[in-house]
Sequence to fold (76 residues):
Amino acid sequence: MAENKPKVVVSSRRRSAVREFKFTAQGVQAFGAGAFADYRQKAWETYQSLALPTTREEAWRRTDLRSLPVGDFRLP
Fold:
């Protein structure tokens, strides 16, 4: 008896890169000194050192980040 499995379509088309968020070091530092200043600085350095995930990474293979409104993201 044949099973009715859904058809899986995998595109080999190259997807364009995700635009970068407009966070800045000045925006992070604008929070001033405080209990979390060092933590924010380390988080900023980590953010700068890592690229956004792509569909070439297995965990993100089916997640398309291109539609994220990156221009609308702001630090509070």
In short: The mean pLDDT is 76. The CA atoms of residues 31 and 37 lie 8 Å apart. The two ends are 58 Å apart (CA to CA). The helical segments are 25-29, 37-49.
